[in-house]
Amino acid sequence: MSTVKEQMLEIIGRQPDDSSYDEVLRELAFARMVQRGLDDADAKRVFSDESVRALSHRVLDPNGETHRNPWRLPRGDGH
Hints:
By secondary structure, the protein is mainly α. It has a domain at 4-42. It is 51% helix and 8% strand. The chain contains 3 helices and 2 strands. The longest helix has 22 residues, at 21-42.
């Protein structure tokens, strides 16, 4: 297992020489987000498809009241 510093240096080393500071930071942030997602999945800190679908039917307004999600489109594939 490599250290965090080694992982960051590897990501930075894969960037083109003309990369901007923001581009490098974006790549580092993306790699961190992916790793956090993988860590969450390994630790079973995930939501099932069914629970996400159930939640996607409703939205909370600024007052915390639940309403039907007006932007949800019906799926045509039977889900």
